[in-house]
Amino acid sequence: MSNPLLERAAQRAIAYLDGLATRPVAPPPAAIAALDAFDEELPPGPSPPEAVLDLLDCVGSPATMAMAGPRFFGFVIGGSLPAALAANWLAAAWDQNAALANVTPAAARLEAVALRWLLDLLGLPAGAAGAFVTGGTMANFTALAAARHAVLERAGWNVEADGLIGAPPVTVIVGAEAHPTLFKSLGLLGLGRNRVIRVPVDGQGRLVAAQLPRIAGPTIVCTQAGNVNSGAFDPVGEVCARLAGSGAWVHVDGAFGLWAAAVPGLRHLVAGAGAADSWATDAHKWLNVPYDSGLAFVRDGAALQSAMAITAEYLPSESTVRNPCDFTPELSRRARGVEVWAALRSLGRSGVAEMIGGCVRHAQRFAAGLRAAGYEVLNDVVLNQVVVTFGDPERTGRVIAAIQADGTCWCGSTVWQGRPAMRISVSSWATTADDVEKSLEAILRVARKWGHA
Ligand SMILES: *Cc1c(COP(=O)(O)O)cnc(C)c1O
Fold it and tell me: Which fold has domain 86-343?
C-alpha cells in the first residue's frame, strides 16, 4: 500500500507544524509578495498533483499566519488538537455528505454522540437539539431561526410558510455589547440589524439585567457569555429568572465563553445559563478543532426542526435516526461533527477542563506581568482575554504594530469602551507557560521602546 501523493502531503503538513514553534508568527512581507506566483493564467491543461502540492506548500505555507502555533493571540480562535486534525484528514478522505443518517451512518452517529457529550459537558438540557454549522455567526443564525419560529408560532403565525411580511412584530432585545455578528444574524433573519432594543452594560460590558424592558408580545432576548474584548459574561441566569413566565425566548451567544461551563472552577460564570432556550458556541474556537465548526443548541428541538427541515410542514418522522439536515441551514455539508467527536474523545472531561482552564491561567499571567511593568489592563481578567494600553492611543498603536512585526507573538488591536487598546486572547491547546513568558518578554521589550506606562 503506497500513495506517494498523500504521503508527501502528510510530510509537508508535518514539516509545517514542526516549523510553527520557531518561525515568526506573522508571515514576513517577502512571503506575502511571493504570493504573486499564484497569479498565473488558468493552466491550459493538467499538471501532476505532486507539482500542485509542492507549489501550494512552497508559495502558500510561508504566507500563512501561524494561527495553528502556540503564540498567536490575535483572536479567540484556538488551534487544532492533534486528534482533531488527524480526524479531519481521515474525514476528508471519507468525503461524506453528512446530510442523511441512513446514507452516511458513521458521520451521523459521531455527530449524535458528540452532541450528547456536549450537552452534558456544557450543562445544557439533555434533550436539547443541536446543529453542526460553520461557526458562531451561523450558530446564532440557526438558534435565532428557531426562536423566530417559536415566538411567532405562539402568536398564531407560521413564519417559514408565510414569511415576515405581515407577521406580528417581534421585539428583539440585546445587550449593548453584543458581538457584531449577532446583528448580522438578525439581519439575515429579517429581524433587522437596527430594529433592536439595546440594554445598557456595565464597565466590563455585562448587560444590566435590572434594565431589561417590560416584555410584551413575541420577544427574543439575546445574551452573551464571553465578551470578545473583556471576556465578561452577561448575567444569563438572572436574565432567565427575570423573564421566566414572560414568554420571551432567551438566547445565549457563547461563542467561546460557553466553554467555561466545562471547567469546575469557572462554571460560576455561566450559572443559570442552562435555563435559556438556545445557545450558540464555536468548536473552532476553544475546542480547538479545524475550521469551520460552530454549534447551535435549542431546548425545543421541534422549533429548530420547523425552522430548518426541508419540508415546509415538518412532521417528526417515525424514524429513530437523527438526520443532520433537519437541524442545519445546509443540506449538503461536510461531516464536521467527526472532529468535534475526536477532540472530545481524546481530551475527555478532564482534558477539556485542563485546556480551557490552562488558557485562563495564561491570560492571568499576561495580565499580572503587564500590570507589574506598569501598564494598564482595562478589564477584569475572568477568562482568556486581556485588554491593555501602553499609554496614549498613538503609543498603543505603535506598540501593537511593533509586536506584530517582532514576530515572537501576534496580538490585535481593539477599542474598549472608547479606549484604543491591545487585545490578548489565549485559546490554543498548544500554548505553554514557556510560550507565555517568551511572549510577555517580547511585549515588554517592545513596549519599553515604544510605549509609556
Ligand atoms: C467569534 C464570535 C462570534 C462569531 O463567530 P464566527 O465563528 O467567527 O462566525 C459570535 N459571537 C461571539 C461572542 C464571538 O466571540
Answer: Aspartate Aminotransferase; domain 2 (3.40.640)
Is 132 a pocket residue for ligand 1 (Cβ < 6 Å)? no
226 within ligand 1 shell (Cβ under 6 A): yes
Cell, residue 117: 457529550
Domains of the chain, residue spans:
86-343
Q: What is d(CA 331, CA 170) in angstroms, rounded to the nearest whole number?
A: 28
**CB-facing half-sphere around the CA of 117: CA atoms within 13 A:** 19
Residue closest via CA to ligand 1's atom 10 equals: 136
Q: Read off the pLDDT of each residue in 245-259 and give the average, rounded to a whole number.
A: 97
Residue 430 has phi, psi (to 5 degrees) of -80, -15
pTM over 0.85: yes
Distance 111 CA to ligand 1 centre (A): 21
How far apart CA 131 and CA 80 sit, in angstroms, is: 21
Average pLDDT, the chain: 96
Say if ligand 1 is within 6 A of residue 228 CB.
yes
**Quick one: the chain helix, strand, coil %, rounded to 5?**
45, 15, 40
Asked whether 136 lines ligand 1 (CB < 6 A), one says yes
Residue-wise pLDDT for 324-335, tens only, equals 999 999 999 999
pLDDT at 319: 60
pLDDT digit string, tens, across residues 404-450: 999 999 999 999 999 999 999 999 999 999 999 999 999 999 999 98
- Ligand 1 pocket residue status of 282, Cβ below 6 Å: yes
Q: Residue range 386-413: average pLDDT? A: 96
Q: Is 188 exposed, middle or buried (0-12, 13-18, 19+ CB in 10 A)?
A: middle
10 Å Cβ neighbour count for 43?
A: 8
Determine whether the shortest distance from the Cβ of 177 to ligand 1 is under 6 A.
no
Looking from the CA of residue 137, the nearest atom of ligand 1 is 9
Distance 144 CA to ligand 1 centre (A): 14
Nearest CA to ligand 1 atom 12: 255
pLDDT at residue 312, as a whole number: 45
* Ligand 1 touching residue 181 (CB < 6 A): yes
Condensed to tens digits (0 to 9), the pLDDT of residues 142-170 reads: 999 999 999 999 999 999 999 999 999 99
The pair phi, psi for residue 155, each rounded to 5°, is: -95, 10
Site of grid cell 418522522: 317
